[in-house]
Amino acid sequence: MTTDAAAPAAATRVAPSLAVEELAYSYPDGHQALRGVTLRIERGERVALLGPNGAGKTTLVLHLNGILAPGHGTVSVGGLPVTRQNLQEIRRRVGIVFQDPDDQLFMPTVAEDVAFGPANFGVTGAELAARVDAALATVGMSEHRDRSPLHLSGGQRRRVALATVLACEPEILVLDEPSTNLDPVARRELAEVLLGLDATMLMVTHDLPYALQLCPRSVILDDGVVVTDGPTRELLADAELLRQHRLELPYGFRLD
């Protein structure tokens, strides 16, 4: 028997940052990249998406902001369905930081790059300036605001690319191989920034130690299906699971 008190509680339940239900997709050449993926990420969670090349990770990410449309199933972000009618708001809510920051930085100065996204979504004036200032401060790049991104190091450009997304105040932050080509210092600096964020995060990576450092939960995707979903440390401790899905920890790496 349901009590009257239960109804208001259900009505006020917060929608997850990401809800993917039975998502399937085939490319025009007939290759089926996703075969019924279901994934739920609650607000504030940090989740690593792991899997070998060709597993379907990129295809899944391209559904999150409506670049690809499902052949079957649904995707919603913060309770808003990913549909053609909602694309502008969905693309604000899903902040994707690309693997190569040069794909994301194209303005003459760092500050102009960070302002571009929110300005495109209609933010102007004092609010736009405040968002740029806050995003640059968050990633530790305020002093470089008037420099050209071309004159920054790889790690600095990666942090500026992150700031361009944070300035849009996304519902979920999607990171595509964030540690690629970073030296140890830049890798650590980026990790410190990411750990300091109060944000929902989906990190697509082959870097298993980075997944362990940043994401308490991991999902392994292979051949278009979720094969396991659980605590990152437990998954990485399962050598047979990693072997089956062509994942490998660096030689000599130990799980303490």
From TrEMBL:
Pfam families registered for this protein in UniProt: ABC_tran
InterPro entries: AAA+_ATPase, ABC_transporter-like_ATP-bd, ABC_transporter-like_CS, ABC_transpr_CbiO/EcfA_su, ECF_ABC_transporter_ATP-bd, P-loop_NTPase
Record domain ABC transporter: where: 18-248
GO molecular function, one term: ATP binding
Entry keyword set: ATP-binding, Cell membrane, Membrane, Nucleotide-binding, Translocase, Transport
Localization per record: Cell membrane
Gene Ontology CC: one annotated term: ATP-binding cassette (ABC) transporter complex
Family, as annotated: Belongs to the ABC transporter superfamily.
Protein name per its UniProtKB record: Cobalt/nickel transport system ATP-binding protein
